[in-house]
Amino acid sequence: MFTTMLEGTRDDWGQIAKAHMEHQVSAAPQQIMESLRRLETIEVGFGANQLQHSLMTATLARRDGASDEEIVAALCHDIGKLMSIPNHGPIAAEILKPYVSEDLYHAVKWHQDFQGKYYYEYLGKPADMRERFRQEPWFATAEKLVDRWDAPAFDPAYDSDSLESFEPEVTRVFSRPVRAY
């Protein structure tokens, strides 16, 4: 094994890639579940904390017949708030990128501008920011994520499914990358 990347061989990198994949399959789902639990402490002015909101969003997706990828994207769409509220969509999208379709990746990345339809005008921003993406192939996916699952998910009294109930979907999605990262 090398001590500097300058000395790495094909065999070294093959071994490293194998170890990375084994770690990813075993650790990623648990790390996502732990991160989602941490969202409970983030309230940021809403009636529901960010864990409740994420559970509501994912529950709405599940009850709407969404795929595992869609449910996990709905569950994780705000996970980036653990690092940065203003940049949370792109952070969440990058976490999801190897595991979800290109459409879901973009839907999560830009979901805040799609939400802007409901509140940007109150903050002095154009409420039609989503329209710049109208011709993108993922536009309908982003509308579905935001309008059917995300925007309605702020009622703390909503009967959401538990975080633990989403563990099978999280494990399935985060155990098998659908594209190289």
Structural account:
By secondary structure, the chain is an all-alpha fold. It has eight helices and no strands. Helix 2 packs antiparallel against helix 3 and helix 2 crosses helix 7.
Write the layout of secondary structure elements.
Elements: H1 10-38, H2 50-63, H3 68-76, H4 88-96, H5 102-109, H6 111-119, H7 139-150, H8 167-174
Helix pairs in contact: 1-8, 2-3, 2-7, 3-8, 4-5, 5-7, 6-7
Amino-to-carboxy terminus distance = 24 Å
Helix residue percentage? 40-55%
- The count of β-strands is 0
Main β-sheet, in a few words?
A: none
* Computed Rg: 18 Å
The shape, in one word, is globular
User: Secondary-structure element order, as H and E?
Assistant: HHHHHHHH
- Bin the strand percentage: under 5%
DSSP helix count?
8
Unreliable spans are none
What structural category arises from helix and sheet content?
A: mainly alpha
Q: pLDDT average, as an integer?
A: 95
Give descriptors for this structure.
single chain, 181 residues, mainly alpha, globular
Short description, anyone?
Helices cover 54% and strands 0% of the residues. It has 181 residues and is an all-alpha fold.
